[in-house]
Amino acid sequence: MRKHLNTLYVTLDDSYLQQDGESVAVRHAKETKLRVPLHNLDGIVTFGWSIGCSPQLMATCSRQGVTLSFCDGHGRFQATAQGFSPGNVLLRRTQYRAADDPDSSLAIARHCVAAKLANSRQVLLRGARDHGTEKPDRHAALTTAAAHLAHRIEAALTATDLDALRGVEGDGADTYFQAFNHLLTIDGPTFRFTTRSRRPPLDPINALLSFLYSLLAHDLRSACEASGLDAAVGFLHRDRPGRAGLALDLMEEFRAVIADRLALTLINRRQLTSADFVTQETGAVTLKEDSRKTVLVSWQERKAAELRHPFLDEKTTWGLLPHLQARLLARHLRGDLDAYPAFLLK
Amino acid sequence: MYVLITYDVATSTPSGTKRLRRVAKACKDRGQRVQNSVFECQLDPAQFVLLKQKLIDLIDPRHDSLRFYHLGSNWQRKVDHHGAKAGYDIDGPLLV
């Protein structure tokens, strides 16, 4: 079993990552800020343009399976250091064949979408349970949306082609995001969710969601690569240069339960306030640098939290879920499992 | 598992300083230096066996000594730091 390993986040401007023995050293202004042995790490993520990295460290990371990703200051993924494609060429070929075959693609994509809808529904129902008692209209809105999603799950599992499935997914996402506002328990104009906006996000909630989704995408991408799958070849998300289709497919089942729930916690507990966001002249809203650290710390804490995997019935951590799901998908592609068991939050 | 490694390497001879450097380097590759000859390492059992054997091979048993303390997986409660140079928590969020 893969162990839950830590991720090192580097946000310090003008720092340089170096290999020091079997460790990574973060150098800044001629001193070593932090030195972490590589065997304790699962990934390294840098934020910002002024963070450098030695080629030697890049090579070592790719050899040792430590995902080294570079993001811009807003947390948007830019590049990754990668060596020779790891993993099993037979598994990759099977994956490509399954992606080329509409029936196999549909079978896997159905489960991804159904799990996304089911998990979104759980988030809504939990909001209704936790915060619905004080306001009847909130409870009503959340349970109505959840009921609608329940129908969509049926529709996703019986969809006859990928385009129909995408329609079901979009419709389900609309329902979910329309009810999203009712999951927020704090008053005031800063945190009002109207519609999902990205590139750029136009309000604080969208900025926070986009940032969390990009962290999630990083983790899923490395989970796919580490399991020997090709992160670029998806089933629901078709191939497009530079897009990690498979990582996005697998991400669907996690968006609501990992990213959205963390965003809601941070806002509802007032760990983030309007002072943590800046609006630029273009209308784009971004997180301030210090606030990004708050988010990263909570993200790491959330990933270390334990849960029981519903399908494997094993104790694991949230951070390991992407790896477990990628492996389950690999087992399905190899023919060891009849269907892909997507992650369903109980 | 979390292991505390301490050593004493006799540096009265040039070969002693060489041993000290090598022992320190081997420990630095696997953990964090919390004091001059004290390292804390988060290892799995296989990594521990490898490191332990490497260190045993490096030292001169007539002059040097090594000590391994197993702090288990609930080590946070067993470590209490005071004063300067607090280390980082290898299991906690790592953010620079």
TrEMBL record, chain A:
Note the PANTHER family from the entry. Answer: CRISPR-ASSOCIATED ENDONUCLEASE CAS1 1
Quaternary assembly: Homodimer, forms a heterotetramer with a Cas2 homodimer.
Q: Which family does it belong to?
A: Belongs to the CRISPR-associated endonuclease Cas1 family.
Enzyme Commission number(s):
3.1.-.-
Provide the cofactor list for this protein: Mg(2+); Mn(2+)
Record's InterPro entries?
A: Cas1, CRISPR-assoc_Cas1, CRISPR-assoc_Cas1_C, CRISPR-assoc_Cas1_DVULG, CRISPR-assoc_Cas1_N
**CDD domains this protein is in?**
Cas1_I-C
Could you confirm whether the keyword Hydrolase appears in this record?
yes
Quote one Gene Ontology molecular function term: metal ion binding
**Pfam families reported in the protein's UniProt record:** Cas_Cas1 (PF01867)
Q: What does this chain do?
A: CRISPR (clustered regularly interspaced short palindromic repeat), is an adaptive immune system that provides protection against mobile genetic elements (viruses, transposable elements and conjugative plasmids). CRISPR clusters contain spacers, sequences complementary to antecedent mobile elements, and target invading nucleic acids. CRISPR clusters are transcribed and processed into CRISPR RNA (crRNA). Acts as a dsDNA endonuclease. Involved in the integration of spacer DNA into the CRISPR cassette.
Which domain of life, per UniProt?
Answer: Bacteria
Residues that hold Mn(2+) according to the record: 169, 237, 252
List the keywords (alphabetical): Antiviral defense, DNA-binding, Endonuclease, Hydrolase, Magnesium, Manganese, Metal-binding, Nuclease
Organism the protein comes from: Synoicihabitans lomoniglobus
Enzyme superclass (EC): hydrolase
Biological-process GO terms, alphabetical: defense response to virus; maintenance of CRISPR repeat elements
The protein here is known as CRISPR-associated endonuclease Cas1
UniProtKB/TrEMBL annotation, chain B:
So which domain of life are we looking at? Answer: Bacteria
CDD domains the UniProt entry points to: Cas2_I_II_III
Q: Does the keyword Glycoprotein apply?
A: no
Q: Which cofactor does it need?
A: Mg(2+)
| Keywords assigned | Antiviral defense, Endonuclease, Hydrolase, Magnesium, Metal-binding, Nuclease
The residues that hold Mg(2+) are 8
Write down what this protein is called.
CRISPR-associated endoribonuclease Cas2
